[in-house]
Write a structure and sequence with these properties.
The complex is a heterotrimer of chains A (about 300), B (about 325) and C (about 425). In chain A, about 75% of the residues lie in helices and about 0% in strands. By secondary structure, chain A is an all-alpha fold. Chain B is mainly alpha-helical. In chain B, strands 1-2 form a two-stranded antiparallel ribbon. Chain C has about 425 residues and is an alpha/beta fold. Helix content of chain C is about 40%, strand content about 20%. The termini of chain C are far apart. Classes of the chains: A mainly alpha (about 300), B mainly alpha (about 325), C alpha/beta (about 425). Chains A and C meet through helix 1, strand 2, helix 9, helix 10 and helix 11 of A and helix 3, strand 9, helix 8, helix 9 and helix 10 of C.
Chain lengths: ~300, ~325, ~425
């Protein structure tokens, strides 16, 4: 019985973790290239969720098709924010860009609140489900999981195999050297920021396939915190490291439920959160730069 | 520089707090506003003590405020009927400082080994982890929190409890702010200040030069945490008389501290005061005149300020004053 | 117009004004031209949703009092109401300074607290210090009323009563269902609902097979619900707020957990619940303080010998929509705020004074019915006169199914399985 539950939680955790991972890749990319901590991260996820909601309810677009649209919207937002503020702040103190991204997040939240009110919204996209005996998985969750893996894979290939991707990678590794080799570093910055935001908004769309309810202008805060932790687990500056960090986080969070449920007097749902953050500290104690090597 | 002139920058700071305090006392109906600004001042000043001096961002800073709030809430709710009067409040302050110092030592042992963003995020982990531990293991009544308004009344009587919550708590917040400012100055102008300045420039080089980097980092970290504990005990516990874990561990307050420090100028002594004034007054008047719309105006304003004044208001003034006799008064 | 005629008009006007002022007892008593109600509400941040509803409802009610009621009768005159509100951003520090501004600069006569128990508590010391009546429209914690506050007056009912009616109903209609699961959000409010429900369930002889909470910011309930599924409950009650209630239902459907009764607090009775969940909302129930469609009316209450006040339900909905400026349906957050203002108006009229102590005393002795239902407080200010209703989604419509005398449809028990 307990083992069955544990297996179920681990499967669910892996699926959730892949979406967490996808939702963190944009954060890591932006940090890796620009050394900017995007504190408004969750607000961009929220924009993705609303993109999915509006397209589904307004034009009956399946969320899976809304992913590229989310990517484009995010890239557009990223370009706007980069050229209005981030570019000017890169030379200033590290914290000023952090504050700017926080302010972007607030602006997005408030604009969405005025467009859609602060209602909690949702939609139903039902594809049926598969009963595995020890747990039940709706196909939409599997699609979300598959979509996340696919995006991570595409990003990996883009970095490894294309000229544009390699140029961006060169900026991460040595931005002076890249400049010397004729890479237009400023353009790489703009592109990375906008791609990072694009990925984040797209992950918000994917998230609605996992959970399609509770969509609200202020829903992002929780994801910002989790994404920070996941990013560190994955080595902070590496987008696909972030993907594995997410997977690990999902497994820890869901898997430890079964453990804590054995102790009377504990609330296992809250303890799983404690466990995930506690593991972060433990990992940092052993490996001060995260679990996965930055390369 | 003589010993006396080292501490000249205290003059404008003390003057600023005196004026603020005077405004609150003399202008009718502005005391709560002034006390809210004093809270922001104290928050910025205490946060700046560590961040400004080391360049490290303690993102989980609010955890120390939260622990301090419990440090005050526990004795008030537990010892209300023992007839100890104000002694319980004194005990609460001591306990608040002690608990936040204890937590900061544990956190510091792990986090201070980390650099830059890793440090910032590890401290978030502490804050969130601690909060979920309180809720999940039902420590201090877990998410139900502690509501101790009635205990405070049993302890001191109705009138005294009321004036403690609506006046003396705010005076204590002023006290925390001044204490934080004075400690900052004392550190900046002492050995620790020079050592940490070296850390800020290049931590590895500082180590090679034989500076005990870890020791000074811990001193600043613990001091900053203790001040946060006192702030939580006064501004949240004594003033509001209740504590819910999800409310006192809200990461938003750390962001608020960063905004205040950056608006005024990181690492400056007057900066947090200026930042708190700009932040507090903007917030208040926008809430009054455009209820429901203030954030959408305030957020672009923040962006504009940091783009136009990247060093903060005081940072800019300090640059202007460089080389003039007034320089001695500004840190 | 000639100069002399104009001057004469002015003279008459002044004379009239002076004359009226002399003769009016209101002026003689030093009563103001307007009674101002001050409110600091959460219009942004966590509680923005409830705050928006409350502010619109208060605007609507002020309009009703001033037009349909002609103002507030006090000192032998009808004095109009005025309403002033600020946004505290769901933040505890902002509450005190904004309340003080309302009291000292705006010179309001009465205060309305912000939504939620925490924010209500944050403002209470200031309200008490100035001795101002402080209307609690959205702080459901029982503990607010064990603190010895003198001026806090509650309209929302205490949390411990939320699931009591639900359990009575299920016991009566489905006596075969015996295994009960409790799964609530881990906050002060939902915990008081859970404790009240647990106590009542034991009295009714239910076997409690599962009792767990989940954190406020939950984004995945799968582990908890898998655990719940293993306990094989007949009835599940729980919930806490809006987002988590939607998530709860969606993931129960995802995991294929079918039970004979499912009732969640807060989320279920809002229209957004059905919009979000479509067919999966079918048969889900929720307790509520008020729902559009409840059948409280002037005729019914007068027949029962109760005092009726305020607009009819349809009038209120119309005024609410005008106040908010869009096609938004008022929900229980709105009705609670509206009823608290009705209570205040009746309290002032009964006390025939604006003195806070007299008004507070009058409120203590007040009992009335409005479109919101009953209203009566005990000595501590806690609401004890308001009974909750239970609503259920049936064929895409929210029907009131309990208590029987307020019901608009028969409850569907047991709940049909998720589609």
């Amino acid at each position: 019985m307990i083992l069955q539950q544990l297996a179920g939680n681990l499967v669910q955790g892996a699926v959730l973790g892949s979406v967490y991972g996808m939702a963190t890749m944009g954060l890591s990319l932006i940090f890796g290239v620009l050394r900017v901590v995007n504190v408004g991260h969750g607000a961009f996820i929220m924009v993705g969720a609303f993109t999915s909601l509006v397209l589904f309810q307004g034009a009956h677009v399946a969320p899976v098709l809304a992913v590229p649209i989310g990517l484009l919207i995010g890239m557009g937002l990223g370009m706007v924010f980069y050229y209005t503020a981030i570019r000017k702040l890169l030379q200033g103190p590290e914290l000023s860009s952090l504050l700017a991204t926080f302010a972007f997040g607030v602006i997005l939240e408030e604009v969405v609140k005025f467009l859609f009110t602060s209602d909690y919204r949702g939609f139903s996209w039902d594809l049926g489900k598969v009963d595995m005996g020890f747990t039940v998985l709706p196909y939409t969750k599997l699609v979300a999981c598959g979509g996340s893996v696919l995006v991570a894979l595409l990003l990996y290939l883009w970095f490894k195999k294309t000229r544009a991707g390699m140029a961006m990678r060169s900026v991460v590794e040595d931005n002076v050297g890249a400049r010397v080799c004729g890479v237009d570093v400023n353009w790489q910055y703009a592109l990375s920021f906008s791609l990072g935001i694009g990925l984040t908004v797209a992950s918000g769309v994917l998230l609605t396939m996992f959970i399609s309810v509770g969509i609200n202008p202020y829903m992002g805060g929780e994801y910002t915190l989790k994404a920070f932790v996941i990013a560190v687990l994955g080595g902070l500056a590496s987008p696909y490291g972030a993907f594995f960090g997410g997977l690990l986080f999902g497994l820890m969070e869901n898997g430890s439920y079964t453990l804590f449920a054995q102790f009377p007097g504990l609330e296992p749902s809250a303890m799983t959160r404690f466990f995930a953050f506690f593991m972060l500290l433990l990992i940092l104690l052993v490996r001060p730069t995260g679990l996965l090597k930055v390369k | 520089m003589g010993t006396g002139s080292r501490y000249l920058p205290a003059i404008p700071v003390l003057l600023a707090y005196l004026i603020l305090f005077g405004v609150g006392l003399l202008v009718p109906g502005k005391w709560q506003l002034v006390s809210q600004i004093a809270f922001f001042c104290a928050l910025g000043q205490a946060f700046n003590l560590f961040m400004g001096m080391t360049g490290y961002v303690n993102f989980g800073y609010v955890a120390f405020l939260g622990v301090g709030t419990y440090g005050m809430a526990l004795p008030i709710s537990g010892l209300a009927d023992k007839g100890l009067g104000l002694g319980v409040i004194a005990l609460g302050l001591i306990l608040a400082a002690a608990m936040s110092i204890l937590l900061s030592l544990v956190v510091g042992a792990v986090a201070l080994r980390l650099r830059g963003a890793y440090f910032a995020i590890a401290t978030i982990g502490v804050n969130e982890g601690f909060r979920y531990l309180i809720e999940g293991a039902r420590i201090w009544q877990g998410s139900e929190g502690i509501i101790f308004s009635s205990h405070l009344r049993t302890l001191l009587g109705r009138e005294a409890a009321m004036s403690l919550s609506t006046f003396w708590a705010d005076v204590m917040v002023f006290g925390v702010a001044v204490l934080a400012a004075m400690l900052t100055l004392f550190y900046v102008r002492g050995k620790i200040g020079y050592a940490l300045a070296a850390v800020r420039m290049d931590e590895d080089a500082a180590k090679v030069m034989g500076i005990n980097v870890t020791k000074y980092k811990i001193i600043a970290f613990v001091t900053s945490a203790a001040l946060a504990g006192l702030l939580g005990a006064t501004a949240w516990a004594v003033k509001l008389t209740y504590v819910y874990p999800n409310d006192v561990f809200a990461i938003h307050y750390t962001v608020e501290a960063i905004i205040i420090v950056l608006l005024g100028g990181a690492g400056t002594l007057l900066g947090p005061i200026v930042g708190a004034l700009v932040y507090g007054l903007c917030k208040y008047y926008l809430a009054v005149h455009l209820p429901g719309f203030q954030l959408i105006i305030f957020a672009p304003l923040i962006i504009a300020i940091i783009v136009l004044f990247p060093d903060g208001a005081v940072g800019m003034i300090r640059k202007r004053l460089a080389g003039t006799p007034l320089e001695r008064f500004v840190v | 117009m000639s100069g002399s005629r104009g001057a004469r008009l002015v003279c008459t006007g002044v004379a009239l004004a002076v004359g009226l002022g002399m003769s009016s007892p209101v002026q003689a008593q030093g009563l103001p031209g307007k009674i101002v109600v001050g409110h600091t509400e959460a219009l942004s941040g966590e509680h923005a949703k409830a705050g928006e509803q409350a502010v619109a409802a208060l605007k609507a009610m002020v309009k009703w009092v001033n037009t349909a009621n002609g103002g507030v009768s006090v000192g032998g005159k009808k004095v109009p109401l005025d309403y002033k509100y600020y946004d505290c951003e769901s933040r505890k520090e902002s509450v005190t300074s904004l309340l003080e501004r309302l009291i000292t600069s705006d010179k309001v006569h009465f205060l309305v607290a912000p939504y939620s128990s925490g924010l209500t508590l944050a403002g209470a010391p200031v309200a008490e210090k100035y001795g101002m009546v402080y209307l609690d429209h959205g702080g459901a914690s029982d503990k607010i009323f064990t603190q010895g506050f003198r001026y806090v007056v509650q309209t929302i009912g205490p949390g411990s009563r939320y699931h009591v009616g639900t359990l009575d109903m299920l016991k009566k209609l489905d006596p075969g269902a015996r295994r009960l699961a409790l799964a609530y959000k881990d906050d002060e409010f939902a915990r008081s609902v859970m404790d009240g429900a647990e106590e009542h369930a034991k009295k009714l002889g239910y076997e409690i097979v599962f009792k767990r909470t989940y954190p406020k910011t939950v984004s995945d309930l799968t582990p908890l619900l898998s655990d719940l599924k293993a306990a094989r409950p007949d009835i599940v009650i729980g919930g806490g707020h809006l987002a988590d209630g939607q998530l709860f239902t969606q993931q129960m459907a995802d995991l294929g957990i079918n039970v004979r009764g499912l009732s969640l607090v807060a989320a279920v009775t809002l229209p957004a619940f059905e919009t979000a969940l479509k067919g999966r909302a079918e048969g889900v129930m929720g307790p509520s303080h008020w729902e559009y469609g409840v059948t409280f009316s002037k005729e019914k209450s007068q027949k029962a010998g109760q005092t009726w006040t305020g607009p009819s339900q349809d009038e209120f909905v119309k005024l609410f929509k005008e106040a908010v400026g869009k096609d938004l349906t008022p929900e229980y957050h709105a009705a609670e705020a509206a009823a608290s203002l009705l209570a205040l108006v009746m309290g002032i009229e009964k006390a025939n004074s604006l003195d806070p102590d007299k008004v507070r005393a009058a409120l203590g002795a007040l009992a009335f019915t409005s479109f919101y239902g009953g209203w009566r407080i005990d000595a501590t200010g806690k609401q004890v006169g308001h009974d909750m209703v239970d609503a259920q989604w049936q064929g895409g419509k929210l029907k009131i199914v309990w208590p029987e005398d307020a019901a608009t449809a028969k409850p569907v028990v047991p709940k049909p399985p998720f589609r």
